[in-house]
């Protein structure tokens, strides 16, 4: 099977590397000015997919390209670009994807409205990566996860369990992940978007990830803001109760959520993941917050806790 990975950030590079190591023919698409730098990638990776985490330090020499056409005959195209880069990729996919199935590892608000002016629903499906970390030039610092909190999800927009989703799941399983096929992929992505935007607000208001993990007040406000965001999701037709762990965030007692979250965010890798995401994707994070805010206000939904993060978000991202 020939696989093209579009996006040479943390997620794209990590998945290209791991899938290549599993024996697949993988090509990594990069922008022309990064082509030479990406011919050799220095990787420091904490592999948490096993019971005992393993530290991996290696050099990955990917097969890279700065162009592709339908004649290349790719079977699967994995799209791992940032929030604000997708619109530049979609016209290229419409022209050059050919018969390939396209898997979007994107967490976007209104993702179908972004994609379907360019691609038919039969051409693509959705997923969520279980990879995090940071990347600078040709150095990748990442972790690989496969857990309830960070699942490797796959699913069709209409919820069907199709042969192409099963085939993609088999690839990720062979690569060492524990893929989960979901019938509610768009619901999961939309509600996770709210999760991410709310945590961003809580951390920025706290002033640091460390202070956020220490102070239960900020964590409680984060979950209250998240539940307001879930009301926006329900107004858009997404049933939060259908997906986990978001359904738990919506229903469990706040004291229990606060206790578990404090413990989770006291782990160094969780702190580093959030720090890296905010540092490397500021436009993406700011856009996430405002997507939920604007939709909630447009629908006249009361979201006082969520709005309470706004001044802190604006100040942080305009410094």
Question: Would you write up a description of this structure?
Answer:
- Helix content is 46%, strand content 18%.
- The N and C termini lie far apart (46 Å).
- The chain is an alpha/beta fold and 319 residues long.
- The strands form 2 sheets. Strands 5-2-1-6-7-8-11-12 form an 8-stranded mixed β-sheet, with helices on both faces. A 4-stranded mixed β-sheet has the order 4-3-10-9.
Short summary:
This protein has 319 residues and is α/β, with parallel strands linked by helices. The protein contains 13 helices and twelve strands. The model has no long low-confidence stretch (mean pLDDT 93).
For this structure, the quaternary state is single chain
Strand count, sense and closure of the main sheet?
8 strands, mixed
Strand content: 15-25%
> How many separate helices?
13
Class by alpha and beta content: alpha/beta
Q: Care to count the β-strands?
A: 12
SSE arrangement, N to C? EHEEEEEHEHEEEEHEHHHHHHHHH
Average pLDDT: 93
Helix content: 40-55%
Distance between the termini: 46 Å
Shape: globular
Low-confidence stretches: none
Radius of gyration: 19 Å
What spatial order of strands do you see in the largest sheet? 5-2-1-6-7-8-11-12
């Amino acid at each position: 099977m020939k696989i093209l990975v579009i996006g040479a950030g943390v997620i794209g590079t990590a998945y290209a590397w791991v899938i290549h190591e599993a024996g697949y023919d993988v090509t990594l698409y990069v922008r022309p000015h990064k082509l030479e730098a990406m011919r050799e990638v220095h990787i420091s990776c904490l592999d948490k997919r096993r019971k005992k985490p393993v530290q991996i330090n290696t050099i990955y020499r990917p097969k890279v390209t700065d162009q592709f056409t339908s004649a290349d005959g790719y079977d699967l195209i994995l799209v791992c670009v940032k929030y604000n880069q997708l619109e530049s990729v979609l016209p290229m996919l419409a022209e050059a994807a050919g018969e390939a199935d396209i898997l979007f590892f994107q967490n976007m608000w209104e993702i179908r409205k972004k994609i379907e002016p360019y691609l038919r629903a039969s051409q693509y499906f959705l997923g969520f990566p279980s990879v995090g970390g940071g990347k600078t030039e040709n150095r990748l610092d990442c972790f690989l996860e496969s857990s309830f909190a960070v699942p490797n999800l796959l699913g069709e927009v209409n919820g069907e369990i199709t042969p192409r989703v099963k085939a993609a799941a088999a690839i990720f399983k062979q690569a060492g992940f524990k893929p989960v096929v979901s019938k509610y992929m768009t619901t999961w992505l939309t509600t996770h978007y709210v999760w991410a935007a709310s945590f961003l607000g809580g951390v920025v208001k706290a002033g640091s990830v460390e202070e956020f993990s220490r102070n239960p007040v900020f964590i409680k406000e984060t979950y209250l803001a998240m539940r307001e965001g879930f009301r926006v999701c329900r107004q858009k037709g997404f049933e939060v109760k259908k997906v986990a762990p978001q359904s738990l965030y919506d229903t469990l007692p706040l004291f229990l959520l606060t206790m578990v979250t404090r413990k989770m965010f006291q782990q160094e890798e969780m702190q580093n993941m959030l720090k890296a995401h905010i540092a490397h994707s500021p436009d993406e994070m700011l856009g996430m917050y405002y997507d939920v805010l604007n939709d909630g206000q447009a629908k006249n939904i009361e979201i006082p806790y969520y709005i309470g993060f706004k001044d802190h978000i604006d100040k942080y991202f305009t410094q």
